Amino acid sequence: MAEEKEKKEEMVPVTAEYAVVDQVDDQAIVELMTGQTIQDYVYSFKQGGRTVEGLTLAGINEAANRRGGIQVEEVKYEELENSWIATAKAVDTITGSSRYGAYEQPKMAGGRSDPFAFTKAIHKAQRNAIKQLIPVPVIREVLNFYLHRKTGSGNSAPQQQIPQAAGNIAQAQKAAFAIANNLEEPLEKKGITKAALWDYIKRKYSVESRNDMSEMQWTQLSAELKAAETTPQLLNDLCERIKQLTAAAQESEVPAAEEPEDKPATSPEAPKTEGQSDKTPF
């Protein structure tokens, strides 16, 4: 019984923490843009029988400043009909490691147009990239200082930085797969099959297989899918983009030559693309 209770207490829905962090960071970005003093460097709330703690956008920036050597080298963005999607690349100049972060921000908030939507997308994309490069001891130090009003014990031994290379792409790909699996049922309810989703991804990124996609592309895809998973309007937007791209592709295809009348008719079957299987379009 004790073991079951312990496992239960460890289970914290990611969506709950995701929503709390987003609300806090939205406020921090507005405070930053309007010249106010940012109040929250950490978040803390009860969920599933345990306390969940972490750094907000302001806390992550503070941790990055304490660590030093972390900088954002590249930021890209794209305007969609109802949202902004941004991608950022952060680099650790000390270890040479780099990570990508992305975020899709709705243009509407609370039924009204959000004047800070673009800024939120940019800041959150940078946040998601920088956070991956901050060593755990530094995160704990900032948490202790702002949450518990302690300076830290100083006994935490520096953790060895693990070189990040091909594993980055694998992690970004794995994240996209997980979100795509969660979206399978909602997409099917709107008439979007796995094959249609993968065809959209291939055409959007001009690739023939999953192996052709870069880490940045997988990260950007994860942000697009995550936004669709969490916001109904962005799910509708994704479905509309898939349908539009599919229709445009069909219009541009060269019609196949007609078969002779005396040749027996066969049921057409769409060929499977590379990397596609019956279980997953990826």
Q: What does this 3D model show about the protein?
A:
With 282 residues, this protein is an alpha+beta fold. It folds into two domains: 9-147, no CATH class; 166-252, no CATH class. Helix content is 50%, strand content 16%. It contains nine helices and seven strands. It has helices at residues 2-10, 14-33, 57-67, 117-131, 136-147, 166-189, 194-205, 215-230, 232-252, and strands at 42-47, 50-55, 70-79, 83-92, 98-106, 108-109, 112-113. Strands 3-4-5 form a three-stranded antiparallel beta sheet. It has a two-stranded antiparallel sheet with strand order 1-2. The chain has a two-stranded antiparallel sheet with strand order 6-7. A hairpin with a 2-residue loop joins strand 1 and strand 2. Helix 2 packs across helix 4 (117-131), helix 6 runs parallel beside helix 8 (215-230) and helix 7 (194-205) packs across helix 9 (232-252). The longest helix is centred in the middle third of the chain and has 24 residues, at 166-189. The protein is globular and about 60 Å long. The relative contact order is 0.11. Mean pLDDT is 76; it is low at 1-14, 150-165 and 263-278.
